[in-house]
Amino acid sequence: MSSDKQPESIHFVTGKLAEPALREIVASIAIKQGFEYTIDVLPITVAALMTPQWLLKHMRIPEQATRVVLPGYLQTGIDEIRSAVSTPIECGPKDVRDLPILFGRKRFKGDDYGQHSIEIIAEINYAPRLSLEALIAQARQLVSDGADRIDLGCEPGFRWSQVTDAVKALKDLGIALSIDTFDTWEASTAVAAGATLVLSVNKTNRHAAMEWGCEVVVVPDETSEFEPGLLETVEFLAKSNVPFRLDPILEPIGCGFAVSLGRYLKTRAMFPEAAMMMGIGNLTELTDCDSAGLNTMLLGFCEEQQIGSVLTTQVISWAQSSVKECDLARRLVNYAVRHKIPPKHFEERLVMLRDPSRANFSADSIESLVSNIKDNNYRILIDDQQLHLISAGVHIRGTDPFDMMEELMGLPESRNVDQSHAFYLGFELAKALTALTLGKRYEQDESLRWGMHTREERHHRLARKSNSRKKE
Fold this sequence. Notes:
CATH architecture of the largest domain: Alpha-Beta Barrel
């Protein structure tokens, strides 16, 4: 029996300069998704300059259209447009290269995204060396970044006589605390002042733990033969009703990393219900690698093995945002594990060095743009190999912004480039070169995306052109 259902017909609206790229992208998507389409090229050069009122005067929607996709810059006026048009209206992305997102490239993120089960313990290393003011400031920042507990790292061989003042001051701020020491005096003093967790306990100090009245972290006596000592300490603490969590100790790469992961698996198998912790700083601090990927991988391991807490630190330069990374990663991996799906296309803030998608302009799109530009405004684009500086009658290619600016200033057309404009072009070319070097996406007058470290920029070029809207 044949179906009478008609294919979806989508009407795309764009400006003159984006037309070639839009046609190329829509044609590809339509084949894969099986819809029909029409493209409405309105009499304006830059789609970003459209207003709802102007759009409604010029847009012509075909009768067969089942929905209309507008440029992303119209999102702020979408309600006004919808109230005037009967056909379903939606805004696409600001950058036409992101159009495939509307057609399933990005995964659906349920309302339950953001839940997490892993506690982040952020260690302040060498806490006794800090003034009370500096200690409080650092603790507050770590909590703001996502830490659930602050771990006060003590110095071996040095007794922290002011530990009571530090613990009380932080506790008064409502901050959960742990003390990181094998010195039984420091541990008992910190607990008396308000710390609720002691790192760490083995056969050397487990007897003292009976008097602390708080939870402790159990570590092996020797990692080479971790099981006998760990079992002995667990048995001792259980008989003494001392609450504990287990940390078999993560080793750095080259020092037993793979074997240490095996210890966590074995410990979980031996103690299916026990609380566990992993000190992930041994990997992030001791590996020449940006920490976000390592943190996400380790948090994923912990989520799968129900390791309920991680201890991290932010000492080395490449791990300066570990707490924020762990906060994002624990939500990502929790969602992935609960839904039994890969943690992909959910958390772009963890993609920092490169971008979730690059989608540079093709050579054909750039050449079409070059032939259609009739004004003296400068556009900067990148393909997979070089930068392009384009204006009416001008097409400069290269990989060195200095050389490109020198070539531009030698042309008669450069008479419209004043000092301020030259600075703007140089700034944008430098951004474009960074994007080309790292394989990032570049869009003129938009900030490069650095995940959670992105700094938004003012739209300098569009702001200057806004006064010419009526002329367009």
